[in-house]
Amino acid sequence: MKKKLLFCIQNPFALDNLFEDIKFLQKSFDITILTTNYLINEDNKEKYENFRRKAKIENLFFLPFYKKGKTSRNIKSMFCTHIFLKNLKKKINFQNFDVCISDGKFFIWQRIILDQFIKKEAIQIGLVLDPVLLPLKEFKELLDGGNVNDITKKLHKLREVKSLEKKKNSILKRFQNVYIRQRDLLFDRKVLSTIFHKNEFSYKESDFRLMETDRFDYKLCFFYSSYYFWEKIYSKKCFLIKLKNDCSCDERLIQKKGKALFLSTMWSNYKKHENFLEEKIDRIVIFFDSLKKKNKHLYQLDFRFHPMENKEIIYQVKDLILKKNLSFVKFEVQNTPLYNLVCNYSYVIGALSGSLSYVKNFCNNIDVYCLKSLSENYSGEYYYLKLINEKIKHYDDINDKFEDENKFLSQNDLNVKASSLSQFLSSITN
User: Fold this and answer.
1) What's the rounded Cα separation, in Å, for the pair 191 and 181?
2) pTM (predicted TM-score)
3) Which residue in 87, 186, 308, 317 is a FRET match for 323, CA 20 to 30 A apart?
4) Taking a C-beta distance cutoff of 8 angstroms, is the pair 73, 67 a contact?
5) Is 407 exposed, middle or buried (0-12, 13-18, 19+ CB in 10 A)?
6) Are 403 and 384 in contact (CB under 8 A)?
7) Rounded-to-integer distance, Cα 415 and Cα 227, Å
8) Nearest to 316 by CA among 363, 260, 271, 275
9) Average pLDDT value for the chain
């Protein structure tokens, strides 16, 4: 008899990179997936519904956590979240789940499920979907032997270093911030939670520092940098996981893949000035031209925008490319999962992004370049440490040289054996 496995994933787009693993896990588990309506529309929702049918997933639910088509919440969406969870508890028996894999305990819906819905005997597994979230200056401090607790004490939600100077906001902005904070702290996590679930779900001691106070039974990481960080906290309960790939590329045929793919980060990451878009596009084109000189089979560069990119920015970038008469640049369809398309390319180019590591993992015969000119601006001089040990080619295209990404760690540190998700689950459930 199959065991029952529950996934709780905040960002539905993160599921794209898990499709192959989930399909494989379906052989051993009855799987239910809970995610949110984060930027979900009818087109991309259909993509997930198709996957559910093909992979024979038992249940797939989209929690109404955000305002429709937005990335923010309001009073209505808070009510909708609690009503949905209350009704969901009647549809499925959470007490039947043997394992729950969640990408956090910070958001209230995940706290309710992990603390109250599932049985205490269920194995709770924390899943880290991204590279290390620490500012890379602090991550470098950790690599140099710094104490993980001393480092995280300085942080807010693992990302920003707490500033000693308070930002000067307008009275209206300060009022809005207080209102949003109290709406979350009091109305959502106390009033509504008590009404619907007879319990409060206030933030705990380390929630705003580590994004979790109560530890999971295990912590799984898809990136070496996040593994290096969380292993300092979880010790032997932390594991590096390698995603499945379905690549059948023949190394002898790689010369026939005449296309390269550019994966764009959010253009809003860059410090804006009059010509910032044109400068970045020029850098991409210069690097692609250098690849073409060495690889005569290259003829096309496909451009893929970040799924959250602003429509106005997309229009501006496309218009610039048209004006520059860059006929070799084409625009890739956004809704296609990366694992379905990377084997069509011989090279991937991009700014610092976890997606670079995902595409490297999905194809056995592909070279992936992370460009300094597109990354240092928003990630700093140690930009390459976020994707350390991921077999990405970190290229300083400003000074025409490769970064020595592994210079801060010994080979012994880097030689970490990665397990597949199915292997790990088999080892703890059999």
Assistant:
1) 14
2) 0.90
3) 308
4) yes
5) exposed
6) yes
7) 12
8) 275
9) 89
Say if CB 270 and CB 276 are below 8 A apart.
Answer: yes
Of 334, 339, 389, 394, give the one whose Cα is nearest residue 364.
339
For residue 302, give Cα distances in angstroms to 216, 258, 327, 353.
Answer: 40, 11, 11, 17
Q: Which two tokens stand for residue 246?
A: 């379905």
Q: Which conformational region is residue 274 in: left (phi greater than 0), alpha (psi within -120 to 50 degrees), or beta?
A: alpha
Q: Residue 161: what pLDDT?
A: 63
> Residue 414 and residue 397: Cα distance in Å, rounded?
26
pLDDT band, residue 165 (cuts 50/70/90): very low
Given a contact cutoff of 8 angstroms between Cβ atoms, the answer to whether 387 and 352 are in contact is: yes
What's the start-to-end Cα distance of the chain, in Å?
12
At 172 the three-state DSSP class reads helix
For tokens 């597109």, name the residue.
374
Give Cβ neighbours of residue 46 (< 8 Å, ≥ 6 apart).
Answer: none
Return d(Cα 399, Cα 402) in angstroms, integer.
9
Give dist(CA 283, CA 197) in Å, integer: 54
**In one letter, which amino acid is 340?**
N
Give the integer Cα–Cα distance in Å for 54 and 47: 11
Q: Which residues have CB under 8 Å from 292's CB, separation 6+?
A: 298, 299
d(CA 303, CA 332): 6
Q: Is 3 exposed, middle or buried (0-12, 13-18, 19+ CB in 10 A)?
A: middle
Average pLDDT over residues 405-419: 88
Looking at residue 335, its pLDDT comes to 67
Tokens (6 digits) for 144: 């140099």
Count of positions (residues) in the chain: 430
Three-state DSSP class for residue 325:
coil
Q: Report helix, strand or coil for 414.
A: helix
Element at 358 (helix H, strand E): helix 354-362
Q: Alpha-carbon distance 344 to 416, whole Å?
A: 30
Radius of gyration of the chain (CA): 22
